[in-house]
Write a structure and sequence with these properties.
The protein is α/β, with parallel strands linked by helices. Helix content is 48%, strand content 8%. It starts with 11 loop residues before the first helix and ends in a 5-residue tail after the last helix.
Length: 814
């Protein structure tokens, strides 16, 4: 019988139920709209920042606005989620928006780390450490204000630590197997950063969500795990996007968000025995999952310009990330199947402890048996104040004698100036490599030694000398797709080199050309007969600082292609010349030390493993050298890094041809990196078969040193050129790397035609400009320093026949 005092309104109750149902649907719909917004903003931010990072790393002129991304991304999430956290009354949705808002605040605080140079990884790690400590302080104060029960340190419990370590070391296996540690300092700071990130993430998740959803008086069901795991995964996605940079954000996105459900269950570990707040296990899990990729991957090596080849770092990192992702999914299902048991046990039983210890020992064994043990990185290129004075060496000496005097003067200067510094380095067991071509040493050490070196009176400045970490497996050689040409290629005929052979009978005999590049396949049919290292008494002709190979080899094919354009059969300009070679960028990342080492070798070759200060053989060196590379700031060079080097080589009477660069004609001043920027080097831009400047070809004036020097000096074919490739193959190639060898080949023809011209670089450059065919195609109009005697409108196209004709007729003082 109904109570008449509280009658049931049969008309109002269904209407109220419908209202509640509509409100519930609206909350549910809003939740998924929020997820869609979060994911969309993440993908957009990650993609745009990735493109900008790659653009900056490759040296294109662009404004570095990376600092804006965490700021704008965080604000785009913090503002709407903050509003929704205040307005939405649905308990779970309110907690989700609160957690995501905290994660967005974390992303905003990462802004200062993006103000640093893109390659300054150690300083970035230090700044991130400071920012995360600040975040924890602010978060702790905020959580104490909204939740008086928040006492993360006073009531800390170690429940869930063992399963966290078990999973944390399981996900280390692909990284320990396929990655490599940096220097000890790199490893330590990244371990700290990773573990501290785990603490930040666990406090954000526990303080924003789990402390409410996992209350003592509430039963935690499977549905709760699924919902909380999704919220946690989204929060980790936000934090990773703000935290990671230079490609690491994509790696961490593979590794961390998938652990959201695992983290939710770890917080329940041992809850039936101990109901204190439990964030430590979650912190260790997320900290280790972050630390492994940070410690075992150099973010610079994720750059496309370095890692674009088959088998390069980005391939192994992607593989390790996917394996980690699968391990995270497996861990989720494993814990989901046994999470009720996990709730009842505050600690693993003895068998579980043995399993955890076994996984840790397994990780150690994988590293030492299948990984690349040791530390890699942390090298400093220390340039001394005093550089050799070569002005006293007469330019009129025979080229052999002039080269010998340059070598002796450089060595004497370096030995005297470096003696005191070397003594101290030897005393403390610090490894180093001395150089004489520039008075400098490469020191294998980190920030403490750098600080000490800065106090030395003989030190001028210290540059980074980055070194790539070893790969899990050796790279395989590239394979071209074309057959060997049966007649001279179009580019050879465009510059009329074939007329030099046929009408003048000059092919470059007696001239030795030096190539410092990715390597050279010495037995390639196009160039094998021209190798100067064949026969007794030929002198040293090959040096490989990277891999110490005993005979010429090349994996990428770049150096082989360059060599074939200089002197290859049917592909080369001077097929009668000889070559010597050196490997300075086997994996498309060099450093000042490798570049200088190879340039020293081309000046005065020496047997591999011997001391270049005493074993250099100047008579076996090259008369002409080609530089189809550049040393940008990401490789450690500043604008003056190689200037003493090219000045010394020119003083020795060696002609230097250099690729102008491939940053394009859209902007003035894209000839921006050593050695192409220097006056002592003859820089070469690219044209196509229609004699129009290639759109990728860099142009002057030189802005980085304020000289407004007109560059490039000349144009040559560099687009769709047939060249030799690795694996005895051929390929169509493009870039100023393949324009520059044309000039090196033409100089070989000129000096072969008139040996009295050998060593006279000034006159040779004059004849090249004088003989050049006028350029009439489209070109940018860029202001230059007219005092240099050249203008941006004076580009000319290389003409071998006219250059050799003028060289033959040139009057050269003995």
């Amino acid at each position: 019988m109904q109570d008449e005092k509280f009658p049931v309104n049969n008309e109002i109750e269904p209407q109220q139920n419908q209202v509640n149902k509509r409100q519930g649907c609206a909350v549910f719909l809003l939740f998924f709209v929020a997820i869609f917004w979060l994911v969309g903003m993440t993908v957009l931010t990650q993609s745009v920042s990735w493109v900008l990072e790659q653009t900056i790393f490759e040296g294109y002129p662009t404004q570095d606005i990376r600092w804006m991304f965490p700021l704008l991304y965080g604000a785009a999430l913090l503002i709407p989620f903050g509003i929704m956290a205040r307005k939405i009354t649905s308990p779970r949705s309110h907690l989700a928006y609160r957690t995501w808002g905290l994660a967005a605040a974390f992303a905003v605080l990462q802004t200062p780390s993006r103000l640093l140079a893109i390659t300054d990884a150690q300083t970035v790690a230090v700044v991130q450490t400071g920012v995360m400590v600040l975040y924890l302080i602010l978060l702790n104060q905020w959580l104490k204000r909204i939740s008086p029960d928040w006492k993360p340190w006073n009531e800390v419990t170690w429940r869930g630590l063992e399963p966290a370590l078990l999973i944390g070391f399981l996900v280390s296996l692909p990284w320990l197997m396929w990655g490599a540690f940096g220097s000890p300092v790199d490893t330590l700071v990244n371990l700290v950063v990773g573990l501290l990130f785990g603490v930040c993430a666990s406090w954000t998740i526990f303080g924003g969500l789990l402390s409410a959803t996992q209350r003592k008086d509430q039963d935690y069901r499977t549905a709760d795990i699924l919902i909380d795991g999704l919220i946690i995964g989204m929060a980790l996605m936000i934090m990773v996007t703000g935290f990671g940079q230079t490609g690491m954000q994509w790696v961490l996105l593979l590794c961390l968000p998938v652990l959201g459900w695992t983290a939710a269950m770890l917080a329940q570990a041992g809850r039936d025995e101990d109901q204190r707040p439990n964030w430590v296990g979650m912190a260790w899990l997320l900290g280790l999952a972050s630390a492994w990729p940070l410690m075992l991957t150099d973010p610079d090596e994720l750059s496309l310009i370095i890692s674009s080849g088959v088998g390069e770092r980005i391939e192994w990192v992607s593989r390790a990330g996917l394996v980690t992702l699968l391990m995270g999914v497996t861990a989720t299902f494993a814990l989901l199947a046994g999470w009720r048991w996990l709730k009842r046990r505050a600690q693993f039983p003895l068998a579980g402890k043995f399993i955890t210890a076994g996984v840790i020992f397994l990780a150690v064994g994988v590293y030492f048996l299948f990984g690349r043990p040791g530390f890699y990185g942390e090298r400093l290129f220390v340039i001394l104040k005093n550089q050799a004075d070569l002005t006293q060496i007469s330019a009129n000496l025979p080229w052999q004698e002039k080269r010998a005097q340059v070598y002796q003067t450089l060595v004497k200067q370096a030995e005297g100036d470096q003696k005191g510094l070397r003594t101290v380095l030897d005393r403390y067991g610090i490894k180093y490599t001395p150089y004489y071509l520039v008075n400098a040493l490469e020191v294998q050490s980190g920030p403490l030694v750098r600080s000490w070196l800065r106090t030395r009176p003989e030190v001028d400045r210290i540059l980074d000398s980055p070194i790539l970490r070893p790969l899990p497996q050796p790279l395989t050689a590239n394979q071209g797709t074309l057959s060997a040409p049966s007649s001279p290629t179009w580019n050879v005929m465009l510059i009329e080199a074939d007329k030099v052979w046929n009408l003048l009978g000059i092919t470059g005999e007696g001239i030795r050309v030096g190539i410092a590049d990715s390597g050279i396949q010495g037995n390639h049919p196009a160039i094998s007969a021209a190798y100067a290292g064949v026969g007794s008494g030929s002198g040293p002709a090959w040096l490989d600082p990277w891999n110490q190979t005993s005979s010429p080899s090349d994996l990428s094919g770049h150096g082989t292609g360059v060599t074939s354009i200089i002197l290859g059969k049917n592909t080369g300009v001077a097929p009668g010349a000889q070559w010597i070679g050196c490997v300075n960028l086997a994996r498309n990342l060099g450093n000042p030390a490798y570049y200088v080492e190879c340039m020293q070798f081309l000046l005065a070759p020496y047997p591999q493993g011997s001391d270049p200060f005493v074993a250099g053989e100047t008579d076996a060196g090259a008369q002409v050298v080609n530089y189809s590379w550049s040393c940008p700031s990401v490789e450690g060079c500043d604008a003056d890094a190689l200037q003493p080097v090219v000045a010394a080589i020119r003083a020795a009477g060696i002609f230097q041809a250099a690729a102008a660069g491939n940053l394009g004609t859209d902007y003035c001043g894209t000839v921006s990196d050593p050695p192409a920027i220097y006056a002592q080097v003859f820089s070469v831009g690219s044209i196509d078969s229609d004699e129009n400047m290639s759109t990728f070809s860099s142009v002057g004036p030189v802005l980085v040193d304020g000289s407004l020097r007109a560059k490039p000096d000349i144009l040559a074919p560099g687009e769709d050129v047939i060249a030799a490739n690795a694996n005895s193959s051929y390929e169509s190639v493009g870039g100023t790397s393949f324009a520059s060898p044309h000039v090196a080949g033409v100089v070989a023809l000129m000096w072969s035609a008139n040996p009295k011209l050998i060593g006279n670089v000034n006159l040779t450059e004059q004849l090249l400009r004088q003989s050049a065919k006028p350029y009439s195609g489209p070109k940018p109009e860029c202001p230059v320093n007219e005092s240099t005697g050249a203008s941006g409108s004076n580009y000319g196209i290389l003409n071998a026949f006219e250059a050799v004709r003028l060289a033959t007729a040139a009057s050269v003082n003995p």
